[in-house]
Amino acid sequence: MIFPEIGHFALILAMMFAVALATLPMVGFYTRNRVLLTSAKPLTYVMTLLIWLSFFVLAVAFATDDFSVLYVSQHSNSLLPIWFKVSALWGGHEGSLLLWIAILSAWAAAVAYRSDSLPNATGPVVLAVLGIIATGFLLFILFTSSPFIRLLPDHPIDGADLNPLLQDVGLIIHPPMLYMGYVGFSVAFAFAIAALITGNLNASWARWARPWTNVSWAFLTLGITLGSWWAYYELGWGGWWFWDPVENASLMPWLAGTALIHSLAVTEKRGVFKSWTVLLAIFTFSLSLLGTFLVRSGVLTSVHAFAADPTRGVFILALLVIIIGGSLLLYAVRASQVRSVVSFGATGREAWLLINNILLTILTLTVLLGTLYPLVFDAFSLGKISVGAPYFNAVFGPISLLLIVFMGIAPLSKWHSTKGKWLVHIAIMPAILAIAFSALVFTFHVFDWYLWLSFSIALWLVFMVARDWFDKVSAARQSIWLRAKKLPRQYYGMLLAHFGVAVTLVGVIFVSMNSTETIVRMAPGDKVVVGNYAFELQGSIRIQGPNYVAEQAIINVYDGDKRVAQMKPEKRLYKARQQMMTEAALSPGFTRDLYISLGEKLSQEAWSVRIYIKSFVRWIWLGGLLMMAGGLLAAFDKRYRRKAGV
Amino acid sequence: MRKLLFGLPLMAFIALGIVFYQQLGKDTEYMPSALIGKQVPDFQLIDLSSNTVTTNEALPDTPYLMNFWATWCPSCSAEHAYLGELAEQGVNIVGIDYKDETEAAKKWLAERGNPYSMVLTDEMGHFGVDMGITGAPETFVISGDGVVLYRHQGVVNAEVWKTLKGYMQR
After folding, report:
1. How many domains does chain B have?
2. Cβ B10–A328 below 8 Å, yes or no?
3. pTM score, two decimals?
């Protein structure tokens, strides 16, 4: 038995260390005191240890069913399987914040570990900036959202159970990955702020920040991909993206982060866009914070809605104003002093990446506008409105397609300037092939120019990626294999990520082009034909889960005479919360998913059944995984290791 | 001038911060529907009494109320009696049994009386999503040609009915 108070106490101590970390190295920087500067590293380590100790204590409370802890009693239950018990830790507001700060401290410790290779004061100042953020969040947890509050002496015998929607393997990994991503952007932010404070606004900060940004971006990509996949199979609607405010909250930092990755590359390699890149780093992390604020403060209603509490809202808003407002003020004062001589041709790679940045920023603002529009509208007393998927689809789609067209060109262009004629020469064949091949595919389908154009663009991107690689490996007399091996990981990371975008796009196109949805009444023995498949309800049985009872329908799926799958959708009743849940059955495939969810029971044996056939839906997430792999590969380029002296 | 340019992000953020501050603690519940002036979305729902799949075609062709309710919703039992009175006055009410269990719903109507001219079951809440509802009860006024005229969130009572009635007579 570990007392939960130990966790609480560790958190208070951690807060004190965070305050020290936020102040001492800064004082050291301005007074040129070496001792204070070098204190940053040990302070970071101790703060991280204390936060993780507190995290561990709470995890133990969950694992051992300590329902005297209010938070545990609200989110866990003795019948819950052990892995859900532990992951229930981040199933509610207080625990998610603890996870947030735990991940922030882990990033800070990682930066501290690698900080020796940074010149003079940069490392300590970066850590101090992270310390400021940690202080803010620790105060927030301690004053408004402590997960260690106890119900003594009368505590409940059993807990209220975790929301059944969240009892899923997706929940175990989705939030930590998402937080790894958007908390990770705090590192790029800290580097940018440190550059503003120390005045070292040359290209070097971009080089240090790049691998960190890439890793965070990879985690965020994975987190969003997992979230989309989870929504698809758990919510039972067969959709993969809903433009929900909470989803948008994670998409905005991703879009800004994507822009940041590219602009960091330009700043590092060419020394241009300096002040823009700094602003983008601030912008990206601000959006992460904004996401936290929107989700936690209750200013926006959402299907994800956690407990909304205005006191918490005011606190987070104050935090936001201090961190974002402070950094933008610093930016306004310092960045205006930077003057870089910008010179590059209209067709140089800088120009293409500038277009990339502009389009990504527009996309980010589009999502931001759509998410905040109802708020702003209401603030000016113009009434209440809601912005739905049609707005996002109408605006987001075309702009991203345009972005992908430029994605095809940019990697093939040269820094500074590229001959326009040469670009056309290179690009014309892939374009013709893409359009022709796409047209060929559409001869088998109802023609839709928008989907046709999208598919052409996806193919064009693939062909351009392939062309680029081929040109690079076949230029000299050396064997292709040897040249291919010599290309840097960073380059392969880029290829992989771009290829992933094409794969996702193909998935999105085919899902919207070739999906079927039907709702039918089925009694045992009934056979229904949907698309190329016949579905036969064999019957239904009662089954007993650890903390639920369920009725399970058994449906055989035939393709012609051959049985291709047996699917078992369920209707579950979770005991502790008396909540009904639909557990959809999936028969996944590379080119199509069969998806069945049970509606209501119509009679003793008959069900209303929803059957979906979704073409290429897996490709959406496969593309996400490829992007993530690309991001990681690029982050672990040998170049960074040598520079970092590991 | 240059300073001003670099200060722009800060100013934009301050403006946003003020908007947020005003919004804090405000009632985010009330939302008129984005569907007002538009047709009721297409649906395929199962009729509670006949167990058959029903579509928009079955909806009344005179003005009516569409009431989302559920047995699990305490406010729904509060408004149930008043809906009964309205039905007696000849108001046509279509009930949507929202995210509910069919058996429980049948039992509820048998015990408390049925004010509805028809009850459709939206067990998965899909239709509720299409109509943009955020919970039960919610009531829409819909014209004879299927256009959404008004949305009310929460319990319908004599006070609310004054407003609804106005829309129904348009």
Report:
1. 1
2. yes
3. 0.81
